[in-house]
TrEMBL record:
Protein name in UniProt: R13L1/DRL21-like LRR repeat region domain-containing protein
Pfam family of the protein (one): LRR_R13L1-DRL21
R13L1/DRL21-like LRR repeat region domain boundaries: 3-127
Lineage start: Eukaryota, Viridiplantae, Streptophyta, Embryophyta, Tracheophyta
Domain of life from the UniProt record: Eukaryota
InterPro entries: LRR_dom_sf, LRR_R13L1-DRL21
PANTHER family for this protein: DISEASE RESISTANCE RPP13-LIKE PROTEIN 1, LEUCINE-RICH REPEAT-CONTAINING PROTEIN 57
Length: 162
């Protein structure tokens, strides 16, 4: 379900999207007035669904300022999010120069994904017990992978907009 509000778009119930091709029909790359996106899957689902392929199909335009992802159960992120780049015609790519905030709730699939968040200034993670423990400032085993970010919030429960 698409819910546009000014320069923000929230897409709920993504578990109902069949595949990447259906997700691409949202045509987010052409919705250039949108600056903040929220992608949300419903709670209580099992791992092993098509979240990776759906998120890959929801590739936005490169001028995004914020992306929030809730209840994502994919084992990895799509290339456009991991690299903070969108492939373009020819050899070059367009970088998400304006993306300063990424909010994740419930699950961050791999340590590699955390290392590749180097373009961000704000990271918000909620409902991720693994990350809460392993990203403890100064002592967590994963802290060094996100310590370069000036603004990090990791909460035991879900996130609220700050």
């Amino acid at each position: 379900m698409l819910k546009p509000t000014k320069r923000e778009l929230r897409i709920n119930h993504l578990e109902e999207v069949r595949d990447k091709e259906e997700a691409k029909k949202s045509n987010l790359q052409r919705k250039t007035k949108i600056r903040t996106l929220q992608f949300e899957w419903s709670d209580g689902r099992e791992v092993g669904c098509n979240d990776v392929e759906v998120l890959e199909g929801l590739e936005p335009h490169p001028n995004m300022e914020g992306i929030r992802i809730e209840n994502y159960l994919g084992e990895k992120f799509p290339p456009w999010l991991l690299m903070m780049k969108i492939p373009s015609d020819g050899d070059s790519s367009r970088v998400f120069d304006n993306l300063v905030e990424l909010m994740l709730r419930t699950y961050l699939p791999t340590a590699t994904a955390m290392r590749l968040l180097s373009k961000l200034t704000r990271l918000r993670i909620g409902g991720c017990p693994f990350l809460r423990e392993n990203c403890t400032k100064g002592s967590g085993s994963e802290w060094s992978k996100i310590s370069h970010l000036p603004d990090i919030v990791i909460q035991e429960t879900g996130l609220r907009r700050v």
